[in-house]
Amino acid sequence: APSDPDLVARATAAKAKLGSKVFVLGHHYQRDEVIQFADVTGDSFKLAREAAARPDAEYIVFCGVHFMAESADILTTDAQRVILPDLAAGCSMADMAVLGQVEAAWDTLTELGIAGTTVPVTYMNSSADIKGFVGRNGGVVCTSSNAKRALDWAFEQGQKVLFLPDQHLGRNTAVLELGLSLDDCVLYDPHKPGGGLTPEQLRDAKMILWRGHCSVHGRFTLDSVNDVRERVPGVNVLVHPECRHEVVTASDYVGSTEYIIKTIEAAPAGSAWALGTELNLVRRLALAHPDKQIMFLDKAVCYCSTMNRIDLPHLVWALEELVAGRVVNQITVDADTAHHARVALDQMLALPG
Ligand code: 13P
Ligand code: SF4
Q1: pTM of the entire structure?
Q2: How many whole angstroms separate alpha carbon 109 and alpha carbon 199?
Q3: Candidates 3.40.50.10800, 1.10.3120.10, 3.50.50.60, 1.20.1560.10; correct CATH number of 5-91+307-334?
Q4: What cofactor does this one take (predicted)?
Q5: pLDDT, tens digit (0-9, with 9 covering 90-100), for 203-244
Q6: Do the interacting molecules here have an ipTM over 0.90?
Q7: I need a labelling partner for 116 at 20 to 30 A (CA). Which of 39, 172, 270, 329 fits?
Q8: Residue intervals in the chain for CATH 3.40.50.10800
């Protein structure tokens, strides 16, 4: 639906009044009505770097989800304020790893004498608490753009990886990019004692995968892939690595949202693409490339409902409050957590390649 013209005018006016004091970041899964006001769009890796590269912007308005705003707060200066236009914009995957659960898992590994050779790696899609835990224990943050590099680095530091919180990104990267076998991976369930694993399983595993997943990408199934191949002969199937292993294995290409966009931009006219990622992004790509046949991998509608909570009314409210001199919905990470999380984030930003 087209954006409300009154709200568009108010957002435009507020941004003009704030000028270079405000910098608006927009994740690729945001609504069109919000994306039109983003000074930069990107995947979570690009946005983290962009936030870190804007020391002059007093206010960073983050159109994304809570963990992204926390990372921006950690990577920006103390004087800068990070604002999330709707505090209810969380991430169900990030919520699947809670600090107390991860500490309990680490205690189990410590009792078994294997914590010392285990390197914790957390996906960007995790709370600042979890990133702080990882930084304290010699690990690294990764995103879907650099998971292979992060795991290569981790296996240079130790013999085993505890991968948080997305089992699919962990498994897909380990098996399809590092050449580990499915048997090298075990699934740690935080709701079961000892993760539901025996000491032998934990000792033998190379990858201990946390039982977390993305509710959006987790909806694509092998049937979705088979079905689109039947309906559209010659179709290229391109999916995000948060999809299930069997979906990724059956696809032609896999990569982060930035990779998906670049691949579609480079695709020849007339080619057909079924995309296994969030629907706002797929719809924008289809509109931007009318010479290519771009479709959603599944028949069901898959928006990220929490990303979609950031809508134009919330953005207008946050911007107009700034114009009035009030900072609303500021996201702050306490200094100790931020310090350790920053170690793990800086380790990511320093990965070679
Ligand atoms: P990227 O932005 O790293 O591709 O991750 C996708 C996602 O699910 C963000 O929440
Ligand atoms: Fe979280 Fe998935 Fe939404 Fe990304 S798309 S914010 S991982 S629920």
Answers
A1: 0.95
A2: 9
A3: 3.40.50.10800
A4: [4Fe-4S] cluster
A5: 999 999 999 999 999 999 999 999 999 999 999 999 999 999
A6: yes
A7: 172
A8: 5-91+307-334, 94-213, 217-296
